[in-house]
Amino acid sequence: MKKYIVAGAILYALACNNNPGNISDPVEKADSINEAQQEVVADAARTKEASSDFLVKAADGGMAEVSAGKVGEAKAVSATVKEFAGEMTKDHEAINKTVKSLASKLDVILPSMPGEDHQKELAGLEAKRVKDFDMGFMDMMVSDHKKTIDLFRDAGNKPLDPDVKEFIITTLPVLESHLAKAEAIRKAIK
Question: What would the CATH number be for the domain defined by 49-189?
Answer without folding.
Answer: 1.20.1260.10
